[in-house]
Amino acid sequence: MEVPCVRVPLENGETTRRELADADLIADDYEITVDDGSLYVPVTDPAAVSDEFELVTRSVDERDTQTTPAELLGFDPTYERLGEAVLLDEDDRDRAREISDALFQSDLPVETVLNKASKVKGETRVRDWDLLAGEDTEVVHREYGSEFLLDLAEVYFSPRLATERHRVAEQVTAGERTFDMFAGVGPFVIPFAKRGAECVGVDINPDAIEYLRENARRNGVANRVTAICDDVEAAASDYEDWADRIVMNLPHSADEFIDAAVTIAGDECVVHYYDIQHEDDPFGPGERVIRRAAEPAYDVTVETRHVVRSYAPHELNVCLDVRLDRPTAPRN
What we know:
Blueprint: E1 2-9, H1 13-22, E2 33-35, E3 38-42, E4 54-59, H2 69-73, E5 80-82, E6 85-88, H3 93-105, E7 112-116, E8 129-133, E9 138-143, E10 146-151, H4 162-169, E11 177-180, H5 189-194, E12 198-203, H6 206-218, E13 225-229, H7 232-235, E14 243-248, H8 258-264, E15 265-278, H9 284-294, E16 299-312, E17 315-325
Parallel strand pairs: 6-7, 11-12, 11-14, 12-13, 14-15
Antiparallel strand pairs: 1-3, 1-4, 2-3, 5-6, 7-8, 9-10, 15-17, 16-17
């Protein structure tokens, strides 16, 4: 069967396989193939594969020994993987239980099955879950070589943004001072710290901050991570003129915190500003908000206008990578 694959030289095969596995991108239904000095790793979502890898389409064998949920159900269920937890979004509880049973009878590595029981809600952006199988809602997620412990009932986390987080992390250099204004359990902070940055992560959710501290310890970067439980507008004054890089991943309301970001920004700072806007003008509103807040104190340059994903019909989740350069005094 013709499927999308990452092609790498055989000598880089194991490193690539591990990286794709950490991002939960390997298509388990198909065999990894060796041909003419190259390794072909089937992937589940080509759009989520980092640009550093070569994508091809080729014929690979299906795994005969693996029983899939689709084979047991007679239809192909829709779900997300988060470590060994499976996340469903089914309105029909009986259908959700049927899928849960099939997942456990299949050959997939599954310990927990959760069905979404509410929309994301409240200041901490958490949702209710229906625990269909497993002991609790705490899971371990691995992403591009980092490990995250989190409780889905207590914190917000989206596995769909793994590729975007990796894109940003690859821009970070050792010695940078980075500030994540809505840090959660650390999916930006931890990889930044692993690249040698000094990191501050702020979140108003105390559970998220506890997991951030634990994840910093798990990944061996606790000495480079400061985790603060507070409203970021209150915390901003303690880090005035401090940051070389700021992450603003609160796309529905990042504009409300742009003044705090400008306070935190140092003389030269890159801001990763996330937004959700109509497809007719996905980048304009965010750029105008940043310019109104930062100019004339800073020269503002939009370095990248990047579509992260489709969010809803005619709406896009986007990121603006914006450089702020203060034309006058050096950093204190």
